[in-house]
Amino acid sequence: MFDPELVSIATGAAGTIVASMVTGGAVAIRPRIAQLFRRGTQDEQTLALNAHDNDSRTLAEWARAADSDPAIAPDLACAEEQITQEWAQRLAEYVASHPETRSDLEAIVGAGASSNNGSQRNTGSGTFVNGTVIGGIRNTYGEGSQ
To answer: Nearest Cα to 106, choosing from 90, 116, 91?
Structure first.
């Protein structure tokens, strides 16, 4: 049985990892996984990175299938949930064996706290596709940023 706080952190990190796989950020999260597992054995490092690569490919295939056939979306959600649970278990086991890596696990959770919002207004003369474009962008990085 794991410490409930560790389970919570591992679940949050697993959610961040899987979300990055689904949204195309798998390449960006991979170095964080390598950072986390750097204190483990070579086998632990290899297994974690191979799991990341395989899960990324699997979820990318599901996402492409769901894009072409919306009826597959529930299957994609099930695959995401299953892979998230597997990562939560993997992360909790690893950090329980290597407590000194807890801050690295927490950093992965923090990576999910980033958001991009903002505003942009395009004006000018000439032809605009679909008329005037008004949108928004706001960049916040880390918890509590404004």
So the answer is: 91
The pLDDT assigned to 122 comes to 47
- Count CA atoms closer than 13 A to 88's CA, side-chain side: 17
Q: Pull the structure tokens for residue 81.
A: 């949930």
User: Strand 120-121 to strand 115-116: parallel, antiparallel, or no bridges (unpaired)?
Assistant: unpaired
β-bridge pairing 115-116 and 139-140: antiparallel
Rounded CA separation 92/85 (Å): 11
Which token pair is 34?
A: 């390598």
Measuring CA to CA, which residue among 52, 10, 2 is closest to residue 31? 52
Sign of CA dihedral 93, 96, 99, 104: positive
Name residues of the chain where pLDDT drops below 50. 114-122, 133, 135-146
